[in-house]
């Protein structure tokens, strides 16, 4: 009886204790939420008051901006130190002191008689805010069960977003009704409430332990504060410009960082234990947080200009639209926390990054014609994904951190966020200004602003791709812990040594294979580079190798669910030499070319993917005259969405954004590998592929490159659109199919050049192609007819291009006889324009020396190729070249007419010798050499031109 009675009492007592603990937890969380709300209000509310403060204190803008800078600098420079101080002295008492400091600083700000006292009080307020922000996150681990960490982090994120959203609007109302002092004094009651809740519900600090007392790292604190202060001032005062002052500040920050690392390595009780960064989870969270904050700052930098200058909204509407993002973030905060608790912090962090990437891509490709709705929709996607990422990212770190490190780790998380915001304000602002190509951004036109916005968010999307790559690599490293097996696998892959594979490997398990029912060599995805690699890297699909467990490092890296990320890299080094270049006596020169391409391919699932690519090119020897596709600091080469699905066995898809395009005969549209950067286009490509047929449609505008950093533009004056279709006429074993293609290409150019004239060219190219292989025979025949209007003349031109080869033996050196016959019409400068335009043909079809062009040409070129080994090839051919029309010029590459050739009689152009060799050292590394020599004939001799030679050798590495 007594046992039963005691058990009942114990049960009641446990229920009461549990209820009290839950109530205490709710009260503590309310106090922490009030702290986050106060800190974010302090950040966003003062900006609105700067014009009023300048008038009230008769001060310049440069002086009053320190009201904002003092607050931000105090938070940034001290946020890690206060976290560590809380770990050592007790977080509860330090948080209470921070709330008191913040509240008293509010009173001083509201009563300040002079500007400099106001600035000093704002610095003190920033110190209090740094304590509240850091310790509020640190206390989550002590006041909330681990299973609810995500929900608590989501609530804190919601309060922070609410403060950011309410600050500007609330300050505007208060200033209008009560004056600028009210924006500080109105928060005093909230500060008192926050202190009361914290005092009542936060757990009491633990008593002194018997362990030796740990000293506070004063030297490390000073060095870190000076370093962060120098960097913050460098990016804040410079607004992205690098003056002597900014350079000195950045140099001081670099020196300070080095001294800080040395001091921490020697300190007995360091402020930050450098060994912490060996934890891939922490390092990844800090890096991705900084990158994401940099991207999010772009919305605050670009948004006001886009809404006001490009969309023409008034100030009230701009403010309303800008508030939608923070409001959406605030509404999503708590649900994001619940999702994090349910599905796991790492999965939700990846999902948040993907959402931010999608929002950035949509903002980048969004046409201005969609108006305000077209801006709001992707902003909502971006900000809600940001709320999810922040909640999950903070949870994944703080959930399992040791109690004695919660303060400093919370400080590091907040520091990474603040540094990202500061860097984003400078860097993204600079990218926006330069992409707009306007000296005064406040006076830029709608088109310039729209271009700047597209470029800025394209770069933002690339940064998110990088963040996803870091996150995916971290998960791999966390699982394998940099095991010797993993390191060996990376080295084997980089060297191109094939790992042993099972004989029962599934399709796509040993090489990247795009999922496509139509044969890959006919799908229109561009030429293959061998071993499953493509010249257009987006055409590679590594997910099949992932499913078989054989994906190389950095390919098809799992992101959770069906999502995966593949990274690609390509670099090419080539040395060119010209002798009598352009057939001009004495035109000798040499040049070195370097191309580097970095790509990221994000597969969200089997239906949706994002692809981004950045390229750069360098020229030495002729760099002063090199075009932008040879000499380029940095260019956004590709950024598009590929959405696809299937109806039965038919693949349907759409590619939207900036992309490479190489479909159909390479004599018309293909990748030009001669320049450092490939030609890219902007627009939409649609495709439908079955097992024996395919259809395609496209509408694309050219990318006009400049030589700087991400300063390329969409050139709507140069455009192609059209339709194509392909059918397998005769299926054969393996890839021995015979295809029949039909195509229509409409091309437009406002700067078409012909015979010394420049003007509009609107051209329709209709054609048919029969090609394929059967047994020892390979062939590719194309017939095309062009109509339209060029330079105010009607067009009637045609071309016939045939390539054929036959294998003499499949043993020894595997010799193969080759021949191509090309005929392209020509005509004089008057009447109907009969000169065939090869559009955007591959530069290497008639040679990288570009001695001849497919216009007014008859070329018969027999040759032979051999393969001494399975990885080497050697090809030799000699072409006999004549022109068709005497009243038309002889054309070099790019339809550049040789001077004087239009005015001399004769048909013989000359002979073109070509020798080419290549060696695939590994599947990733290829060495190549090429030599071309044009022997001038009667037409060129009579025009006082001379024989010319061209040669190149180089290496390409693809990963």
What's the helix and strand layout?
Blueprint: H1 2-44, H2 50-56, H3 61-64, H4 66-89, H5 91-111, H6 115-143, H7 149-178, H8 182-185, H9 188-201, H10 218-238, H11 244-266, H12 280-310, H13 315-343, H14 345-365, H15 371-398, H16 406-436, H17 446-480, H18 484-495, E1 528-530, E2 533-534, H19 543-547, E3 557-560, E4 563-579, E5 589-603, E6 608-620, E7 632-647, E8 650-659, E9 681-689, E10 693-704, E11 713-730, E12 738-754, E13 757-774, E14 777-790, E15 793-807, E16 816-824, E17 857-866, E18 872-882, E19 891-892, E20 896-897, E21 908-920, E22 925-936, H20 938-942, E23 948-958
Antiparallel strand pairs: 1-2, 3-4, 4-5, 4-23, 5-6, 6-7, 7-8, 8-9, 9-10, 10-11, 11-12, 12-13, 13-14, 14-15, 15-16, 16-17, 17-18, 18-21, 19-20, 21-22, 22-23
Give a description of the structure.
This protein is α+β, with helices and mostly antiparallel strands and 959 residues long. 43% of the residues lie in helices and 26% in strands. It has an 18-stranded antiparallel β-barrel. A two-stranded antiparallel sheet has the order 1-2. Strand 5 (589-603) and strand 6 form a beta hairpin. Helix 13 packs parallel to helix 15. It is elongated, with a radius of gyration of 33 Å.
